[in-house]
What does this fold into?
Amino acid sequence: MDTNLLTNNVLSALQALENDLNGYEELTSRLLLAAEGTVFPLDLLAISALNRMINLTSGFDRMIRERNFICAGAILRLQLDTSLRFFAAWQVQNPHSFAASVVLDGTPVSKIKDRDGKHLSDRHLVNQLSKDFPWIETVYNRTCDYVHLSKTHFLFAVSANPSDQDRAVDIRIGRGDPLHMPESIYLEAIDAFRNAASILDHYLNGWIETKNRTHVTKSSAFDKPQT
It folds into this structure.
């Protein structure tokens, strides 16, 4: 796909995304070296989330460059999923047991309850995280349409022909976005992806701080990671 069809503003936004990706290497080092390399159960979930974020960022960047927004929108939803499910560790009584259940036992997050006895469904996690990040709910709802076959995909396949008085539509089936795709769509998506990734970055840093504090006190248990 010809990336020359992307505007300079979109290419600049993608460069910022690539800079974020490069910064994850330093975050990885701090995570693995925290507490003198001690590995806690929550680290298993942390490294899973971090590895997923790195690969999703790479994939999202490529899909935008190839002007494949149907795929990019779904990847954005997957990044929200990554951030939401790592955030879930802050909602339970014992983050270590939660992480072990998810990563080692394969227990669905939605089957686990928070400290108040509520199941950690996506909707519940969105509602909780929206208290600090109000934009989450809107982006979550919109990107779900890219995961499930919906009206969104129909709109990518057809377009109205303004010159046709009979209100005919043009059907377009093939790779890449319509040529009339506005740059604002790409810019909003890139911004949303970076914001979603920054949430995971925020909670990963909170966990790193908790690891170092916990190691200093020579205790392997804690009630709640820092934020």
Confidence is low (pLDDT under 50) at residues 218-223. Residues 65 and 121 are 33 Å apart (CA to CA). The helical segments are 8-33, 41-65, 69-87, 95-103, 122-129, 136-147, 151-157, 183-216.
